[in-house]
């Protein structure tokens, strides 16, 4: 069994306005997660060090962090990251930024679990409908090429920023992968919108999948985290 989580951590700023990667790292370390897909990891503030931010979110080396910056500045970087307890076999970033909009990417990381290799794809899509439409098409292109060449089980998750209740945005993606449903995840205090989502290849058996809503997660970020307990076909 392997637990994968996806979490938009809002730059480490909770609903109590406190910025604290240490408390998020401790939560992740005790959540039984083997892999965590993070969105909105931000190490740019000059009053903090990049090294300390990474150490805190990794819960003092409980996890290894693989970064996938959408923005890089002299003081640090902002974007996606994957935390893992497993050895990393490979990783790659695909730019899916659209003209005039905030940079976005797809992060692909292949890890070696205790039961064999697993590929995770982490992303955070744009705020405009037309922007997401193009980005989803690019994601599907990457997935089609990936599953054609690699039979490794694959899990896609992240913040898709799709707030419409009866959206048709995922029609092509749903033909490629099996979507898991979690319900509303944003805002964390009183969730209304299903922004955070996940899909898996048919060769991954999902034993349990849910959002984590409790007193702690309603404060740590403006999004709720997701988790999937999966069984690999090896």
Written account of the structure:
The termini are close together. α1 packs parallel to α2. The protein contains 5 helices and 12 strands. It is α+β, with helices and mostly antiparallel strands and 234 residues long. The mean pLDDT is 96. The strands form 2 sheets. A 6-stranded mixed β-sheet has the order 3-4-2-1-12-11, covered by helices on one side. It has a 6-stranded mixed β-sheet with strand order 5-6-7-8-10-9. β6 (105-113) and β7 form a beta hairpin. The chain has helices at residues 21-29, 50-57, 129-149, 171-176, 217-220, and strands spanning 2-8, 35-42, 64-73, 76-84, 87-95, 105-113, 116-124, 154-159, 178-180, 196-200, 205-211, 226-231. It has one domain: Endonuclease/exonuclease/phosphatase (Deoxyribonuclease I, Chain A, 4-Layer Sandwich).
Q: Report the C-alpha radius of gyration, rounded.
A: 16 Å
What share of residues are in beta strands? 35-45%
Separation of the first and last Cα atoms: 11 Å
> Structural class, please?
alpha+beta
Low-pLDDT sequence parts: none
Distinctive features:
21% helix, 6-stranded mixed beta sheet, 12 strands, Deoxyribonuclease I, Chain A, alpha+beta, single chain
Short summary:
The chain has 234 residues and is an alpha+beta fold. Helices cover 21% and strands 38% of the residues.
What's the layout of helices and strands?
Elements: E1 2-8, H1 21-29, E2 35-42, H2 50-57, E3 64-73, E4 76-84, E5 87-95, E6 105-113, E7 116-124, H3 129-149, E8 154-159, H4 171-176, E9 178-180, E10 196-200, E11 205-211, H5 217-220, E12 226-231
Parallel strand pairs: 1-2, 7-8
Antiparallel strand pairs: 1-12, 2-4, 3-4, 5-6, 6-7, 8-10, 9-10, 11-12
Helix pairs in contact: 1-2
